[in-house]
């Protein structure tokens, strides 16, 4: 079940992003050991979550409704919830960071009014997280909902192809976004490409 691994790769990337933002002073999170643990954990979760499908892998099992619903929950719902929680924690940290900076720059008198409003930075971060969440859910949901509904109704193969392309584009956008918004990763690749090591 490659889809589970792909979804949990995005979850792992969002978790590592959370760790790099919230726990940026923890040097352990920048080591190769941490990277290996993260990758191994993601693969372990993917393997454990596919066990029910492997155990009940019979010739007609692919047609069973529970299996289609299980795939939808494992590929779309659970990763979406985990990514949403990670993003909420990132936003909460960024918001409290903004409040600390505003507190140090402004007097206590103006502070109460300033805390009521989101800063432009916080608003941009919140919009970005909502858009990325929607891209993931809207990109992946149709193909799995199609698999659940297709048992009762027949659809054109063009619709299925559009759903597959939608899911692939969703993954491409999410991965590109993770790369573009990770300044440290971009700097690392720039140094490796331009300096040759």
Automatic annotation (TrEMBL):
Pfam family name, one: 7tm_1
This protein's GO CC annotations: plasma membrane
Gene3D superfamilies for this protein: Rhodopsin 7-helix transmembrane proteins
Membrane association type: Multi-pass membrane protein
PROSITE patterns: G_PROTEIN_RECEP_F1_2 (PS50262)
Major subcellular site: membrane
InterPro entries per record: GPCR_Rhodpsn, GPCR_Rhodpsn_7TM
UniProt keyword list: Cell membrane, G-protein coupled receptor, Membrane, Receptor, Transducer, Transmembrane, Transmembrane helix
Presence of the UniProt keyword Zinc-finger in the record: no
Keyword presence, Membrane: yes
Single annotated GO MF: G protein-coupled receptor activity
Superkingdom: Eukaryota
Transmembrane feature ranges: 34-57, 69-91, 125-149, 155-180
Domain G-protein coupled receptors family 1 profile: 1-181
Cellular location(s): Cell membrane
Name used for this protein in its record: G-protein coupled receptors family 1 profile domain-containing protein
Native source organism of the sequence: Adineta steineri
